[in-house]
Amino acid sequence: MVDNVKCAQSLPNPIRIVLLLQDLEFGGTQRYAIHLLKNLDRNIFDPHLWVLRGGTDMAPLAKEASGKNQVLWLSRDRWVSPKALGNLAYQLVKHRPDVLYTMTVVPNIWGRLFGNVARVPVIVSTYRDLHPQQYERLMWRLSTRIIANAQAVKEAHALRFGVDQERVSVVMNGVDSEFFSPDRSQQAPEPTVLFVGRFARIKDPFTLLKAFVLTRRRVTDAHLVLLGAGRLKTKILDFVRSHSLESCVQLAEGSRDPRPYFRKAWVLALSSKREASPNVILEAMASELPIVAPRIGGIPELVGDGETGLLFEKRNFEGLSEALVTLLLNESKRREMGRLGRERAIRCHSMERMVSETQQIIVDEVNKALGYCR
């Protein structure tokens, strides 16, 4: 650690930091928060996780990561209710943290508002979406520091909302490469494409399904596994039935441990209309899967086109199909991309690097706000 972190260690007590989430449903931001909760240096930080509403898919992982600190549910309602917001305001005033780290849209709105009213010394917010619906043209000024997970996200917020880029730091996502390790002995015998994500319009699963119909004409034994949940599930099932794909398309519920699906798959495919920097790409790379994904947002910062995967233009299902066929029919290319992807994940996207960079940013802001190390 650099000098500022060492200075923070001289404080009489660790820095009390609250990570504020909307819920603990399956999601990349939730996984990011849990990684921080688990790995922040306890000699420097006393981390807590507050959750605004129900949604417990990842609650067991959060409780495990929290150690002696229990996860604080501000409500168990299905939506962020007045009760939740009242409890948030009360907790911030009664148990004011040194740092409030707001994540996802609703916490980024109410956490920043109430955090400023409660005079929390440092308010850090995260940008993990290119177009968040959180009044950012006004709200960014309420953050002491903003952490974006891709350079493309930082630039998009500056262009779209006028955010001062000097206030935004970029910390790329990290992945636990020991946890997400490859095991070729578990690979499916038939060519298998894996999708991991919400069944939502922004993820555009129908572009992938259309591409898969074309792919089956050339790779007749190809299979597709859709791992996730969401409102489009019924429409996806209707598409599968109408195209007689029941024998080769599987819908699987989202899982806290997707490793068995990564290890069975041959290729990870995404078809989103909009993405920032998807964690699932790094998890697949660490699992030695080549990536097929749209050339949008921060994805080109993660995937080396032609090196660790193949990129296509969004909504172009013909281009997506062509990329799938190329990889499913070429084992040597597929394996080489997988190998290089894992090397890149370990070299550039380690969990240790992500946590270390995040810690340093937060400690720097605490030093500035509270006047330590002067």
How does CATH name the architecture of the largest domain?
Answer: 3-Layer(aba) Sandwich
Counting DSSP H or I runs of 4 or more residues, the number of helices is 15
Low-confidence stretches: none
The helical percent reads 40-55%
- What is the molecular shape? globular
Widest beta sheet: strand line-up: 3-2-1-4-5-6-7
CATH topology group of the largest domain: Rossmann fold
So what's the oligomer here? single chain
Rounded to the nearest angstrom, the distance between the terminal CA atoms is 18 Å
Q: Compute the number of strand runs.
A: 13
What labels describe this entry?
374 residues; alpha/beta; Rossmann fold; seven-stranded parallel β-sheet; 13 strands; globular
Describe the structure in your own words.
This protein is an alpha/beta fold and 374 residues long. Helices cover 43% and strands 16% of the residues. The chain folds into two domains: 3-174 and 350-370, Glycogen Phosphorylase B (Rossmann fold), CATH 3.40.50; 184-348, Rossmann fold, CATH 3.40.50.2000.
Short description:
It is built from 15 helices and 13 strands. Helix content is 43%, strand content 16%. The protein has helices at residues 3-9, 28-39, 59-66, 82-94, 105-117, 136-139, 151-161, 205-218, 233-242, 259-264, 279-286, 299-302, 317-328, 331-348, 351-370, and strands at residues 15-21, 45-51, 72-73, 99-102, 122-127, 145-148, 168-170, 192-196, 223-227, 249-252, 267-269, 291-294, 309-312.
Topology at a glance:
Layout lengths: L2 H7 L5 E7 L6 H12 L5 E7 L7 H8 L5 E2 L8 H13 L4 E4 L2 H13 L4 E6 L8 H4 L5 E4 L2 H11 L6 E3 L21 E5 L8 H14 L4 E5 L5 H10 L6 E4 L6 H6 L2 E3 L9 H8 L4 E4 L4 H4 L6 E4 L4 H12 L2 H18 L2 H20 L4
Parallel strand pairs: 1-2, 1-4, 2-3, 4-5, 5-6, 6-7, 8-9, 8-11, 9-10, 11-12, 12-13
